[in-house]
Amino acid sequence: MYKSKILLIDDEITLRETIHEILANENYEVVSLSSAQEALDLLDNWVPDLIICDIMMPVMDGFMFYEILKEVKPLSAVPFIFLTAKKEDNLMRKCLLLGADDFLIKPFIINELVKIVEVKINRFKKIKNTVGNLFVGEKKYLLHEVNTSLNGILGSINLLIDGGDDLEKDNIKEFHDIIKICGYHLNRTMFNLFLYQNVINNEVRYSEKDKSNIGDTFENVLNTIQIAYNDADERIFFRIKKATIKVSEEYLYFILYEIVENALKFSDSKSVSVIGKPFDDKYYRVVIKDSGIGFSQEELKKIDAGQQFNREKREQQGLGLGIFLTRAILKKLGGVFTIISTVNMGTEITLYFPI
């Protein structure tokens, strides 16, 4: 009979041995280690169904360990529970925004530990069975993207419920913000997947009657981006001349959001410019330019559905569908997509929309 596998990491030997014994008695296969580095060595050849890890450890703490695991494809979606001896709001917030499944505050009740472990493993199995076959290529991270957003939402809701009247007003707002950010991210993930299916099945719907105002749509895009990027106002320089173009509001919003958000994400704290105006009597041109990490010529040739370059180094989130879908949809609508990029100098993307 298959036993669910659990990796336990804690430098405190007494607690580690106690948790190991409890979980082993619950019929789990448990491997317990004293450091994150030992765990990384083990995980080269072994994939658990759940990881429980202390936050405060020497050399490599739990947060650093978790960040490394997020970039390893076979491990990126494995449920992860943090152990902490401190009940601090900033630690809880960091756990939730990172996408961890849960955290336990020491000392904890045995039944609480057993129940959380059972729930997380069972939920992971269900999610894996439901969406495990939805990866859109051999190196995709759909399961991780869905799981990360769900963890942030569910974790924040649980804290709001458990905290009740004891939570400060600022804490409540923080958890509301986390739910909002994670909700937008989850919605974007699923919508991108929906569009991807439409593109590969040649089901991109459009009509000659489709029209939208690019100035109004761009304002909506900025409002959404500002939810996740507090410095968006300072970093985005834009000049968009209002005009009506022959693209639906849905597709226009998607294209502008994907390209502008990508420019922000890959240019760190640097500014991004967005300039839009009629090009001629057939097209409206939008130029998005950043001074970020850029792409090599070889990478530009390989841009495809779900392609992400150096995800580990660039700390990417998302499915890697943005540029692929933008180019495919724009072509279908009678528009034009061009990209010029240089490594460590930046990228310039030009979009031509029919008018």
Automatic annotation (TrEMBL):
Which reactions fall under this protein's catalytic activity?
Answer: ATP + protein L-histidine = ADP + protein N-phospho-L-histidine
What keywords were assigned to this record? Kinase, Phosphoprotein, Transferase
Report the InterPro entries cross-referenced here.
Answer: CheY-like_superfamily, HATPase_C_sf, HATPase_dom, His_kinase_dom, Sig_transdc_His_kin-like_C, Sig_transdc_resp-reg_receiver
This chain's protein is named histidine kinase
List the Gene3D superfamilies hit by this protein, alphabetically: 1.10.287.130, 3.40.50.2300, Histidine kinase-like ATPase, C-terminal domain (3.30.565.10)
Q: Does the keyword Kinase apply?
A: yes
Q: What EC number(s) are associated with this protein in UniProt?
A: 2.7.13.3
Residue ranges of every copy of the Histidine kinase domain listed in the record? 141-355
Which residues carry the post-translational modification 4-aspartylphosphate, per the record? D54
EC category: transferase
Pfam families in the record, alphabetically?
A: HATPase_c, Response_reg
Q: What is an example of a GO molecular function annotated in this UniProt entry?
A: phosphorelay sensor kinase activity
* Ranges for domain Response regulatory: 5-121
In terms of superkingdom, the source organism counts as Bacteria
Q: What is the lineage of its organism?
A: Bacteria, Pseudomonadati, Bacteroidota, Flavobacteriia, Flavobacteriales
